[in-house]
Amino acid sequence: MTQDRHIKLGLILHGVGRTWDDWRHPDRDVRASTNIRFYRQQAQTAERGKFDFLFVADSLSINEKSSPHYLNRFEPLTILSALAASTEHIGLVGTLSVSYSEPFNVARQFASLDHISGGRAGWNVVTSWLGDTAANFSRTAHPPHHERYRIAAEHLAVVQGLWDSWEDDALVGDKEHGIFLDPAKLHRLDHAGPYFQVRGPLNIGRSPQGQPVIFQAGASEDGRDFAARHAEVVFCGPQDLEEAQTYYHDVKARAARLGREAGLPLILPGIAPIVGRTDADAERLYQELVGLTSLDTGLGFLSRAFSDHDFRAYDLDGPFPDVAAIGQQSNQSAAQRILARVRRGNLSIRQIARELATPRGDFVGGPQTVADALQRWVEQGGADGFNLFETLPGQLEAFVDLVVPILQERKLLRSDYEQTTLRGNLGLAYPVNRHAADKGKQAG
Amino acid sequence: MTQDRHIKLGLILHGVGRTWDDWRHPDRDVRASTNIRFYRQQAQTAERGKFDFLFVADSLSINEKSSPHYLNRFEPLTILSALAASTEHIGLVGTLSVSYSEPFNVARQFASLDHISGGRAGWNVVTSWLGDTAANFSRTAHPPHHERYRIAAEHLAVVQGLWDSWEDDALVGDKEHGIFLDPAKLHRLDHAGPYFQVRGPLNIGRSPQGQPVIFQAGASEDGRDFAARHAEVVFCGPQDLEEAQTYYHDVKARAARLGREAGLPLILPGIAPIVGRTDADAERLYQELVGLTSLDTGLGFLSRAFSDHDFRAYDLDGPFPDVAAIGQQSNQSAAQRILARVRRGNLSIRQIARELATPRGDFVGGPQTVADALQRWVEQGGADGFNLFETLPGQLEAFVDLVVPILQERKLLRSDYEQTTLRGNLGLAYPVNRHAADKGKQAG
Asked: Looking at the domain assignment, is residue A54 inside a domain?
């Protein structure tokens, strides 16, 4: 990859908000999660700020206790395709689960998005960690954690294989001789593995990026190995710079051991900046955010990470209970991170609940303060860039109008898009089609 | 439904063309099938002509012998979502196969499209008739014809059940009391059938149409029963008015026997008009179209309907061979239609091949001639409207500029959209949510 020192920036589009209570802000549209005008406005603002990509997360099951931003949301591929038509440069990255999708459908939808957007598609590969998702997909049980990553690896291999079905110049279009296609450049995949058997070829031609960009968010051991081996961009959720550095070093080292190109994968912590005109103004905004949150919400968040365990049964101000046996079926990495934070701060249930409901993080302050923190994280080996949550309404505009110009002045952010594709803007190489590569080897 | 006598109009978006050789026209972009600008332009032209909807067909397997318009194409949900952002009024209808999709994913994607487009989504339910599709989806065999319709009925029931997960007013959004959702108005489906087991609820709120519109194209006995029972709009492919009348009468009668509302389902034959400035000009354009076609193409088309049977083994100018045993695994209704046409015209292989490659149909002529034919089909009980293929490049514009004004003058076509939703413009009622209906019954 190129020696690009720019900070990579993504915007997480999440409708009503990041936390359970963000929707209660007076300026928040309670239907934002299915409001195309809101999404379009956010997308265009991020593009004005020269962000690399928009990111739409996903999940596949809800119940009446789910957080508002899970309850009601656009499906990622459809909203990203709509946003492709309303933007020109910004990347379009969506989550799609390998556990409940057919690789042929996944390959098509992202290739189609890549064509629609002129080369701006990215796939965030997830394995779906909520156990009750299986019940929405005619399955009796969710596959265990370790197996999910074996499925994921095979699923991804099939999708990437299908993306190479068409060599770059397979579509000939010779009208005079009636030759639409060079059949020697259209390839079956003939994949036959333990989980998937897929013949191919894909019924859509080679897309502008050759292969849409692969994103992933590995946190567990299996997840980090997967990220190091397969991802081009990795999302993570460190609580502070130290945790970010540890993760960054670990995943880059795993990737290096696997012989991957230096610099890969790019690592982008998720952050929730609160930008004020001054540090004091930002502090006031943070308190506004905390004011939206109830203790119930924090406890719900905690419970969710531990297989719906009820923490109200304990003294909320006493020591955190022994929950070693909990969380096997749930989000392992989230639970472990919470336990680490509790131990580090010797926190009560009440304290960790409030923190979970309204994480403060490192990025609360005036424009210079936030820009300094972003620069510090990147220069001190914690990040290649960031995946931004909007906290309060108007915060994306504040970031774009106040922080982006400072980063541009410091040459830490582009002043305009360098390339037409997401891959190009991220400094990732165009992938040579495996079939063309084979021929090259035979010729050489 | 309302007593709307307007002709319903759909435009089939098919990229490089309807037949195997349309792409060879000098003015046709050989990459039209993945060219977003071409799709956008077609969509906006159809909207200018006050068409009811755009339709994107689909198929799920190709090989190097497939027709150019099958080989390389956008995936329907993604391209329709992109077009939602580039249009304001026109409906957005896409094919999705029940044989190779999860009902939960289908329900979400169409509900999401319905939100994105402000209520313009329609689903064309198909069962996928190409036997080798199974090989792209980790299946060993394609289910037999009759079973596919049992799967389709259950799949559709699950999707429509999921669309009723949220009552219209389930999203409360009471910021003061922190009540996002009324949990009594969010419903699990708890479907447990022979093919699908789906708990729900769907993770996207009630969409503007309540339920996206159901399209279908039943031709076989099973298909017609399915259409009569479940479809709101039916596509068909009659060769002439007589065949259209027979089909129309048959499906409407089946629907009436099932107790469906009078007028349902709407029946829309697919037609391929060629509009000239005069009848003679249109004849010249038709010959231009025929000139693009090779005999090979016609034979390929024939072969495709009969399980890839090779008709070159016969005397092309002799009588049509006995193929009673062929076609069981393939498109039964297409094969039967071809055999009926061969018998009616006593055609040789060469003759039926040419006709298949360049069907002429009833809609070739000057503007008055084409408008008269459309009116005749509707007034004589052959159609409630039409699903249009563009034949030669520029033909959509010709239809919109020359034929549409005549239809409007005759009050056979709207001069502007009456409603904001596809359902509304087609004159279909807003479906009452089943859970609200249950409560209504209990209260009454």
From this structure: yes
First vs last C-alpha separation in chain A = 24
pLDDT tens readout for residues B409-440: 999 999 999 999 999 999 999 999 999 977 77
Same domain, B241 and B222: yes
Note whether A79 contacts B203, CB cutoff 8 Å.
no
The reply to whether B204 and B348 lie within a common domain is no
* A79 Cβ under 8 Å from any chain B Cβ: yes
The answer to whether residue A287 sits within a structural domain is: no
Residue B104 contacts A, CB cutoff 8 Å: yes
In chain B, which residues have their Cβ closer than 8 Å to the Cβ of A75? 105, 108-109, 111-112, 204
Give the pLDDT confidence score for residue A328 in this predicted structure. Answer: 52
**How many structural domains does chain B have?**
2
Looking at chain B, which residue has its C-alpha nearest residue A113?
B78
Residue B325 confidence (pLDDT): 57
The pLDDT tens digits of the residues spanning B157-205 come to 999 999 999 999 999 999 999 999 999 999 999 999 999 999 999 999 9
Token match 């499209």: residue?
B113
How far apart, in whole angstroms, are the C-alpha atoms of residue A265 and residue B117?
36
CA angle (A61, A25, A16) in 5-degree steps: 25
**Cβ atoms B224, B213 nearer than 8 A:** no
Q: Is B289 a domain residue?
A: no
Per-residue pLDDT, averaged over B89-104, amounts to 96
CB burial of residue B44 (10 Å; 0-12, 13-18, 19+):
middle
A190 or B314, which is more confident: A190
Last residue of some domain: A357, A377, A397?
A: A357
For residue A86, give the nearest of B26, B85, B115 by CB distance: B85
**Partner residue opposite A178 with nearest CB, options B21, B26, B77:** B21
User: Are A341 and A210 found together in one domain?
Assistant: no
CATH number, residue A367: 3.20.20.30
A chain contacts of residue B72, beta-carbon cutoff 8 Å = 166, 171, 203-205
Average pLDDT over residues B277-282: 97
In a domain, B147, yes or no: yes
Residues of A in contact with B25 (CB under 8 A): 175
Same domain as A131, residue A90: yes
Q: Which residues of A touch B113 (CB under 8 A)?
A: 78
Contact present, A229 and A149 (Cβ < 8 Å): no
Structural domain harbouring B236? 8-280+360-443
Work out the angle at residue B260's Cα, subtended by the Cα atoms of residues B255 and B264, and round it to the nearest 5 degrees.
Answer: 70
pLDDT, residue A287, reads: 86
